[in-house]
Amino acid sequence: MNNQITDQIKADLLESFEFYANPKYTGYDPVRPVAKIIFSAQGEITSPPDLEFMGYGGGSEGEAFDACGGFNLEPFFPLDTDGEYFEDDDEEFISKCLQKAGEAVLESLQSIATSEAFLDIPKEGPIVFVLNIVDQKSKVICRIHPDGQVELPPKKN
């Protein structure tokens, strides 16, 4: 994918991170610590598919934020000629699209893992990042430690 898309994901992530540390956006004062952030999209539950991945955070105190921040990954999911459904509904096709989208999100997360916006998010340890398409597929992207160190998930054999 081109740098323009990655740059937009990066900018959207930085803005989202600022939301996650702000009680005005999370609805919790004080802001609750985060252990996991799931970026979730409706996918083909809607027509055309909704590929705006919204952030949902949770930790030991329960929900930290709900549908807060996020980014659009539509360029990674080609649609049919009518623009109503994914180009192919085969599970392998969705997996490949999610893999490519995940690579772009990982690249963006790696580049901003030591940003002030990330460091300001209240954490209880590392934060696990997941991409999810409701009722279809999810993928663990990485875990980022409080110091900004990025840890990739173990390789599947």
Q: Could you please describe the fold and organization of this structure?
A:
The protein is an alpha+beta fold and 157 residues long. Helices cover 31% and strands 31% of the residues. It has helices at residues 3-20, 23-26, 91-112, 116-119, and strands spanning 34-41, 52-59, 62-72, 123-133, 137-144, 150-151. α1 (3-20) crosses α3. The two termini are 27 Å apart. The mean pLDDT is 92.
Mean pLDDT, to the nearest integer, reads 92
Secondary structure tally: strands:
6
Give the CA-CA distance, first to last residue.
Answer: 27 Å
The strand order across the widest sheet is 3-2-1-4-5-6
Question: What is the overall number of helices?
Answer: 4
Shape: globular
**Largest β sheet strand count, sense and barrel closure:** 6 strands, mixed
String of helices and strands: HHEEEHHEEE
Please identify the oligomeric state.
Answer: single chain
Helix content: 25-40%
Task: Furnish the topology, listing elements before pairings.
Layout: H1 3-20, H2 23-26, E1 34-41, E2 52-59, E3 62-72, H3 91-112, H4 116-119, E4 123-133, E5 137-144, E6 150-151
Parallel strand pairs: 1-4
Antiparallel strand pairs: 1-2, 2-3, 4-5, 5-6
In short:
The chain has helices at 3-20, 23-26, 91-112, 116-119; strands spanning 34-41, 52-59, 62-72, 123-133, 137-144, 150-151.
